[in-house]
Write a structure and sequence with these properties.
single chain; mainly beta; 22 strands; globular
């Protein structure tokens, strides 16, 4: 059987365009690419393993067969209608390729799960910033920053998790010192450890896994905390930053740093169409070659390569299932 279809012989002829012969574990696609050439000269045969293809993998067109090209994030698979080429779209996606959000929905960016420092519980000082008046791009989101001091903390309430998976915690900041801040303790506080989904990706998480350390380089504006945090859909978390030692070598009681926000970035390790098949591995290599997860792409004024924009849209559709537009109706 191939994806639940019993072995059978299927012949489809549309204007002498296509004949499909389905066998166990193999699909033989015979294409007549141009009607004006004798059939024997036009015959092309391609054998594809059933892991990647099914009956609807090609869309029939006048000049031959076209790949379905279903959006990996907006569709359930890469199989399409053999006549129309329509892919099977996720709930809030539409279009032939399933790459268009339905009305009242949008494709969320990878930094959709952004939490402003000003809205956090904090021992620091809120610093309001006015937009630059000389045309420069703002380097912060929200209204400004929180000025955190050595020994201080910020605690973020994190929700809106739609998909259970690993997320990178990215800290956005502006340094106030010429040296790096050397020790920030990052703690993920879960509602419970004894009620983790036994069939989910976070089932093996224990309290020690939720204690992480980071440093804030003086020559950067963002840092990715390692290892990532495994978060489950529908649950509320607290992520706490404790600013311990600014320097391990000397006392710096007046040390401070401006914290803009934290962002939760989905990791592609948990996204099925980035691995497990030849096309998946190809996507992964391309994603990594163009450094599509680079935190600098998600800040203000970030120059994102076009190929990364496409991947970001597909990941957003998959992870957030088409984010709902929140708006207030006109009265």
């Amino acid at each position: 059987m191939v994806f639940g279809i019993s072995p059978m012989l299927i012949k489809m002829v549309v204007k002498n365009v296509l004949v499909i012969h389905l066998e166990p574990l193999t699909i033989k696609v015979v294409m007549y690419t141009r009607e004006s050439v004798p059939v024997n000269d036009m015959l092309q045969e391609e054998t594809v393993t059933s892991v990647y293809w099914s009956i609807g993998v090609f869309q029939i067109k006048k000049d031959g067969c076209q790949p379905c090209d279903c959006d990996p994030g907006g569709s359930y698979d890469n199989f399409c209608d053999v006549i129309t080429g329509q892919c099977k779209c996720r709930e809030h996606m539409t279009g032939r390729n399933c790459d268009i959000p339905k009305q009242q929905y949008f494709t969320a960016s990878l930094d959709f799960l952004l939490y402003e420092a000003e809205a956090s519980k904090s021992s620091g000082q809120v610093v309001i910033r006015e937009p630059y008046r000389d045309g420069r791009e703002d380097t912060w989101t929200g209204t400004g920053f929180v000025k955190a001091f050595e020994g201080g903390f910020l605690e973020f309430i994190v929700g809106e998790i739609k998909t259970s998976m690993d997320y990178d915690i990215v800290i956005r900041y502006e340094p106030l010192l010429t040296e790096s801040w050397e020790d920030v303790l990052v703690t993920v506080r879960r509602p419970d450890y004894d009620q983790l989904d036994p069939n989910g990706p976070c089932t093996q998480i224990n309290p020690e896994d939720d204690i992480k350390h980071a440093s804030l380089p003086a020559n950067s504006r963002s840092v990715t905390v390692y290892p990532p945090a495994c978060l489950e859909a529908g649950k509320i978390y607290k992520i706490r930053l404790d600013f311990r030692k600014s320097s391990f070598d000397k006392e710096t009681p007046s040390a401070s740093v401006l914290i803009d926000s934290i962002v939760l970035i989905p990791r592609i390790d948990n996204i099925p169409w980035f691995h497990g098949s030849t096309p998946g591995e190809s996507r992964r290599k391309e994603f990594e070659r163009y450094q599509c997860s680079n935190p600098s792409y998600f800040g203000r004024g970030g120059k994102i390569p076009e190929i990364c924009k496409k991947y970001h849209a597909s990941i957003g559709a998959y992870v957030f299932n088409g984010a709902f537009c929140k708006y207030f109706p006109f009265k």
